[in-house]
Write a structure and sequence with these properties.
- This protein is mainly β.
- It has a single domain, classed as Porin, CATH 2.40.160.
- 7% of the residues lie in helices and 66% in strands.
- It has 1 helix and 11 strands, in the order H-E-E-E-E-E-E-E-E-E-E-E.
- Strands 1-2-3-4-5-6-7-8-9-10-11 form an 11-stranded mixed barrel.
- A hairpin with a 7-residue loop joins strand 2 and strand 3.
- It is globular and about 55 Å long.
Length: 247
């Protein structure tokens, strides 16, 4: 009898936990400009600027990102970058009438591999996130919440023409990126999010391309029992400059 009672109580607790799980689905548009400029054999710069919409795909804005960095080239395929990012989180659920600023130093190693018919790109990035505290819907608090975040990305590029980088050529793109939170203030969501992208790259010349396609983002929010699915149309322009020969 005790066993049956324990089973009933346990089943009730598990059912209650599942009942309290909240999942949101929303659509967004992500746009971005990415520049990597190489000045010499060893040195270059990184810059990306992004703007993302909010719920219902085109309703209002979600985030603005400005992220510069300084790059050191170990060789033509591998590079180290360190920089700073400013992120503006536009008004959301827990700060409906005020935007939340975030300051984010970051460090990264990025490497490329080229095979006869495919290309890959990977990076491992460490971020230090300082997000301004929120007092209420209309007021920012004093100080910042802090945590580390580790990101790993893998990109696969498959050319769809015999001359893969000529003007007008297309490539098929698969990209996946996982985010993991670390730090004392992280309680429930050590796993932060996963971003999966599938789309096409339109090559404008040997170095620049426009990528567009569909991204599925799955995120566990800080509360632990709240999850978010974002279905996004993503359009990124990649602009690469090499000034070695000019120098």
């Amino acid at each position: 009898m005790k066993g049956i009672l324990l089973f009933v109580i346990s089943f009730g607790l598990v059912s209650s936990a599942f009942a309290q799980k909240e999942t949101d689905n929303t659509g967004q548009i992500w746009t971005g400009y990415f520049n990597q400029t190489r000045f010499s054999k060893r040195w270059g710069v990184w810059l990306d600027v992004q703007l993302r919409t909010k719920e219902k795909t085109v309703q209002d804005l979600s985030q603005f990102i400005f992220r510069p960095g300084l790059t050191y080239y170990l060789n033509d395929r591998t590079k180290l970058t360190a920089g700073y990012a400013y992120i503006r989180h536009f008004p959301a659920d827990n700060h409906r009438n005020v935007a939340q600023p975030e300051h984010r130093p970051w460090q990264q190693i990025q490497w490329h591999t080229q095979y006869p018919h495919v290309r890959t790109m990977q990076y491992l990035r460490l971020e230090e996130r300082y997000r301004r505290k929120i007092l209420n819907d209309s007021t920012l608090g004093e100080g910042h919440n802090f945590n580390f975040r580790v990101r790993y990305a893998f990109l696969l590029q498959v050319p769809l023409s015999k001359q893969p980088v000529k003007k007008g050529a297309l490539s098929f793109i698969l990209n996946d990126e996982i985010h993991v939170n670390l730090g004392k203030q992280v309680v429930y969501n050590y796993f932060d999010q996963n971003r999966f992208f599938a789309g096409l790259a339109l090559h404008l010349n040997a170095h620049d391309n426009l990528q567009f396609g569909y991204m599925n983002l799955f995120q566990q929010l800080a509360a632990g029992n709240r999850y978010r699915y974002i279905h996004a149309a993503r359009v990124f322009f990649f602009h690469n400059l090499d000034w070695q020969q000019k120098n």
